[in-house]
Structure prediction request, 382 residues.
Amino acid sequence: MSPFLELQLNSDIYWLIALALSTLIILFYYFFYFGRVALSRSGQENSQQANAPVSVIICARNEYENLKKNLPIVLEQDYPDFEVVVVNDFSQDDSFYLLKGFQEKYDHFKVIHLRENVNFFEGKKLALAVGIKSAKHDTVLLTDADCTPAGKNWIKTMMAAFGNKTEIVLGYGGYKKVPGFLNKLIRFDTLSIALFYLGAALAGKAYMGVGRNLAYHRKAFFRHGGFASHYKIKSGDDDLFVNSAATPSNTAVVLNPEGYTFSDPKKDFVSWFKQKKRHLSTGTYYKMGDKIKLGIFTFFNTLFYPVIVLFLFFAQDSLSLLIALGLFLLKTISLMLVYYYAGKRVDEKKLFLYSPLFDFIFVLLNPLFAASNIFYKKNKWK
Prediction:
């Protein structure tokens, strides 16, 4: 055997090892984390906690139209004992008059007006902290002004997940379906994030939640110091709290369609890009173990594509090519299966058709998001 041919065969083996290792690690994440969402029960219902009193908290700044559209749905939930608290955070639109009208109509509605744009808390953390402190019930359920509950049983479904040891309940917050490629990309991204954080919570390794649909006991919030450890960070009022407070025994997940919320998606790429990079900016403040867990998947999922392309381009051995093709098909089919069955749980099953394309697109986009946060870190209130 010539030295060149021996070197080529050795090179093929190295590429195959890298490809096989990437595939195995990706499949582990698919089935250990993501697959739990597809296979889990609808919810961890506890009838003893289903009717416990709760305070729904919404922070809003210049959200007149969203409040007008969504607040009645929240105020008219089918639940025996709840209040709705809106913190109007220095709004300069007509929110004051709209909220005043709702106060006159609903006895269980409370409004707190913040009239100064104080800046010692970044983002909406001050408004949210004020809302939590002002709530009269021991359990708070958080959502945003632009979120629409799935129906009148949203509160009931979220509250039913609280058990005797439960302090935190994670819900799914999706985006509404509208025509267009960007909308599908946003919904795929939202589903992907949900599969990871909900799947991790189901595995007893919760690391984040979304403020669009999140409930917890106030005592847990105060015991962990509220937002004190990250008050200078504009985002993270949801995921950083969960990252610090969640344990394997105190966190539950709701996977019941009646317990979801849906928001209006961004309509252009630039707006979505800014939103996305803001969400990613808090990841650097996660616990080290969670950063490693997320980083391993991102690294090997990113590595998979250039390795498969380079291998298919340079490999000479037909058996190696067949093995590489088989690994690619195994990864792709597994991806589509997970997104199909998990997508069914959140009414997003058709996204599995686009999952291979979108998975590759995010391999290209994620470095752009990361670079953008390095060179430009200024973010807005929300």
